[in-house]
């Protein structure tokens, strides 16, 4: 099929990434690596069960122990006990870069009793059936009820805290019907629940990306914490902040930088057509379906590379995507940006500290939690 220009359709590059190791084995990251990355445990770290882990963006955010654009994201007191996803290639990427906890599995057919017990459950349950750029069929879609394995885990293992991630359109689709049903199921499992609406550029991402974060805390423990505080209120970091230094690089001196789809620009199209990024502005949202949402570079006559998309999702350069462009782009687009995950995880870590050490921390955190929450915590901990 020819594009409207009449010229033959250009074929995708079939370049393969060149690398020696992933993030967890990279000497450049060894000085700050989380213990899980080197086969150890964080001392007294809180255990995490990860569902729908994909390539591990959310998990990397919770673990910390990496650098992104020169900034260090410290290791946090968590330990992954298992990470499950149905995508075999995504799990290979996970195990290459994060730890050997990744396991291929269909969560809809796994007995939750056979999964390890953990204090925290995290999961970015599939969003395609709720997305504004998807079929918008909700629970009627084949992926619309994939949050239910998380509910089953909650009922079986009673984790202290549960964190789910999904697209913002979940809150508005059919007047919020599906989100409300999910929240009711969470409450019925014995949890208080809140929803955080987070705009990722407020946390340093150079990409227009908004996500809903569902935070549930077991009712006997207290109310969920407030959302993390934004760090970039004075102005967003534009696209060139994240990828400007890659403009002159076309080889694998930076892994995945030679990988991109060859594409001509369409002469017309709607929201799923061509997008040309603009210097000085945020990048368009990185999507999992790289063929439907075509993003061109703001200065170069080509699409964004795999590494540029990974940068815009805040993956460090040492985090390698080992497959062909299509699989890599899908993994990147499906991921939770690690720096957003780290902001969420830092808030959860502080909250756990609050639960465990009570009065002393409560006296120092009056600005982080409202009076109702503090009163509840004190009453629950001390009567």
List the helices and strands and how they pair.
Layout lengths: L45 E6 L5 H7 L2 E3 L2 E3 L4 E8 L2 H10 L4 E3 L15 E4 L24 H10 L3 E6 L10 H12 L2 E9 L10 E9 L20 H5 L30 E3 L17 E3 L9 H7 L12 H10 L3 H20 L1 H6 L6 H12 L1
Parallel strand pairs: 1-4, 1-6, 4-5, 6-7, 10-11
Antiparallel strand pairs: 2-3, 7-9, 8-9
Helix pairs in contact: 1-8
What does this structure look like?
The protein has helices spanning 57-63, 88-97, 148-157, 177-188, 239-243, 306-312, 325-334, 338-357, 359-364, 371-382, and strands at 46-51, 66-68, 71-73, 78-85, 102-104, 120-123, 161-166, 191-199, 210-218, 274-276, 294-296. It has a domain at 23-232 and 337-382: 3-Layer(aba) Sandwich (Rossmann fold). Strand 4 (78-85), helix 2 (88-97) and strand 5 form a beta-alpha-beta unit. Mean pLDDT is 86; it is low at 127-141 and 364-383. It is globular and about 55 Å long. The strands form 3 sheets. The protein has a 7-stranded mixed beta sheet, sandwiched between helices. 26% of the residues lie in helices and 15% in strands. Helix 1 packs across helix 8 (338-357). The protein is built from 10 helices and 11 strands. The protein has 383 residues and is an alpha/beta fold.
Question: In short, what is this structure?
Answer:
This protein is of the alpha/beta class and 383 residues long. The protein is 26% helix and 15% strand.
Question: What attributes characterize this protein structure?
Answer:
Rossmann fold, two-stranded antiparallel sheet, alpha/beta, globular, 383 residues, 7-stranded mixed β-sheet, disordered C terminus, 15% strand, single chain
